[in-house]
Every structure is written in C-alpha cells, then in structure tokens.
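Sample 3 of the quickstart, ligand pyridoxal-5'-phosphate:
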Amino acid sequence: MRVALLCPDMSNDSTERIVAHLRAWIAAAPAGARLPSSRALTRELGVSPVTVQKAMHQLNALGLIETRPGVGTFVRAGRPPSPVDFGWQTGALGTPRVRIPSLSSTQQVVSPDAIALHSGYPTRELLPTKLVQTAIARAARSASAAARSPAGGLPELQTWFANELAGATLAGAPPVTGRDVIILPGSQSGLSSIFRAVVGPGQPLAIESPTYWGAIVAAAQAGVVLVPIPTGSDGPNPETVDDVLRRSGARAFYAQPTFANPTGAQWSPERSRAILDIVRNRRAFLIEDDWAHDLGIDADPAPIATHDTEGHVIYLRSLTKSVSPALRVAAVIARGPVRDRIFTDLAAETMYVSGLLQTAALEVVSQPSWRAHLKRLRMELRTRRDFLAESVAEHVPQAHIENVPAGGLNLWLRLPQATDLARLSRDTAAHNVFIAAGDEWFPAEAASPHIRLNFSGPEPERYPEAARAIGVALTAQGC
Ligand SMILES: Cc1ncc(COP(=O)(O)O)c(C=O)c1O
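Result:
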C-alpha cells in the first residue's frame, strides 16, 4: 500500500524536523503502509540523501518502520501510538472552580496479595454473596430487566425503606411512608444532591470534623462553605453545635450519629435528643447519614430520624456495604417541600436508578436469610475488630486507639504529632500494607495525624503482619 506524503519544503530544516514530520505521517498511516522511496523523499523534501538516511535510521531505531531489502520501507505493525497532545483543553477548560482530589486513597486498587486496610467496602466473605447472585439472576428474568423505574424508585422498595424507619418511629411522630423515600444510586449521589438542593453554592454547611471524606468532596463540588464542628468518640458537643449554627447562620448540619466514619462514634440518646432540639430551635435541617445501619457490633442503630416530628431530619441509608457494593442502591427519606427539592435535583442528575438493581436489592432484603446474614456479620465484625485492635496494641505502641467502635468497619488511630503521613503510607505500601491517611477526613487542617484502618477487607489473619509494618515504619520516622 502506497500512501501519498504531503511535503512542505524542508530544505533548510534539520534531521529532527524531518523525523517529526515523518512521525506525524506514520501516526496517521495504517500499519503496513509503504513510505516513499529515499530518492522520492530526497526530491520531495528538498534535502540531501544523507539527511533522509539519518531520518530513516532514527525512525527504524524508534521501531516505527521496517525496511524490507529490495522491496521498500513500511510502517511497522504494532508500533507505539504517538502520545496525543491535549494541550488545547487547558485553554478551553480554564481553572477549576474548586481543586479537589479526583480519587480518595480509599479507592486505590491494590494487588490481591496486599493487606488492604484502606478500602471502605467489605470483602465478599462478609457479604450475602449467594443471596445476591440468586437475586440478580431472578431480577434478570423479571420484567425489570427491560423496564424504566419510576423516578422516585420502585414502590415496593420505597415502602421497604420507609418501614425500616417507621418500625422504629416513636409514638406521636407522623409515620414515614413510601412517598417520603427517594431511591438513590448509592448515598454518595444523595449527599451531592442534598448539598446542592438544600444548601447551595456559597452557603454554609455545618459538618463534623473529622467526617466522611466523600461528604467533604461532595460539598466542595457543590460549592458550599464548610463550617467544621469538632467531634470525638461521643459525637459533637451540643453547645458547640448550637454556637456554630448561630454564628455561621448554617441551615443544615451533616452528621453521622451512628458508628461514624471514621471515628466510630455513636451519639448517646441524650445527645441525639439535645442536638435534634438545637436543630429544631434554629429552624435548620439535620442531614443524618446512617451509612452503617446494618453494621452494628455491640450496639444497635437508633436513627435520630425516628424522633423527627416536623421534617427537620433528612435521612440517608445505604445498602452498598451490607448487601453488595455492586448493587448501588440507597435511599433518602425526607418530608415536606425539602423532599421535592431533593427529588428535582436527583431527577436532573440521575433521572432514575436501574430497576434491575432495585429489584435485586429488594429480593435480598426480603429473604428470611437476610436477617441470619446480619447476625453472622455482627459476630464476624466483632472478631475482626478485636483482633485488629489487639494487633495494633501489640505492634504499634505509638498509636492511640481513640475508640473501639460499637459498630462500623473502621479503627481510627491517633499518631504522634511528628508523623509524616504521606511517608508512612508510602513505606507501608512498600511492604504491601495499604492504610488510609487520616487527613482526607478533615474539612480543614487536621489537629493531629491519624490513620484509618478498615477491618472488613480480605485475610484478617494477617492483621499482626500489617500492624508490625506500621509500627516499624513509624519507628523509622523516629516516632
Ligand atoms: C459515611 C458514608 N456515607 C456515604 C457513603 C457512600 O456510600 P454509598 O456506597 O452508598 O455511595 C460512605 C461510603 O463509604 C460513607 O462512609
């Protein structure tokens, strides 16, 4: 195959310019295309035969062409694609409104032989995998495989989420119904929608510190201004919550009253009531992220939403950590006009959640074996949590376990003030141990260095090995 070459006059140019010109031509030509002969190139480019020879030599060394003696020179098959220059996009995009990391360290994909303490999602041994597989197969055979779901979600699944909350709702509180529920493709998208629809760009949002990194990222992307409220192993101090809401004028407070990520804190009933009263008196919303509802270990969840009589609580519940991360199904429950605001935002963003996933999720949580699974999960999480805590106590004397959590999936460790977290993560990763550096969980500067260790990954028997690697890496830093 012979391809024509458009030749500008290069008589005064160097070999490099000719090589660059021919590389562009080769990049656009199909594999096996025949280059013009050396004589033709000499003539068409207006350069000397020696210059053409040198250029061909370089292209050959780059693996872009092959010469078949007596036949000609051809574009080599399987040549490396030349790197594309996307420089024009810099001008078109301008600077970003907010600069946030595109990927949390918790989402790193690591090799199967690594000890993964960094990720937030449970390994398959902790999931009702068989139940999920059967449910997906059944859903695939059902009508939902070829149907559009209503925008708010499948009514039966809306009702299931409503009943879960209504079952615990106090006498006197208006019952939650399926209409109050909007099904989400994971609660992360619910956070983004709520921050956009309820708070809005430039407006303040009170938030615990530390708190879930994904909420910080979603808030930044929505352009809301975060107002941190310090929290510890008992949750935030109600007086501080009141003070921050008063001073900042924030009309919403994002919090995790149950087994918080990362601290593991569970608010006492008194604290929960006090904070709900404050939110009510300030005519504000509490955005209650009940992410670990199914992950109780020594305690049961007690959602504040069950005490809400006037629509102050916007409640989020997810199934991605207890049913399967592959079935991205969660729900937001809100009452009054705020529900419609969130619904409008979600409809513009995701339109609806795959009915196939909703059908499968509903099938899983409707089975009698779902409850049995949750019981087993509780025991397994307890064993893992305790073993990891023991391993840390034995091999990482520098670390302070802030709270042995009564639920959730994480241990939150405070480290010596001088710890270089980036170096610690690099050094442990070099020993195939992956941890999450705590700074991602702080909306502002972290008061002290922390790491989060997740105890729901594969191979818990390797916790001592992981803890030793962390201890050694800290010692190497002089901590
Ligand atoms: C506190 C909290 N909220 C929300 C999410 C997001 O969960 P989902 O998988 O439902 O998007 C997570 C995930 O780690 C979380 O920890």
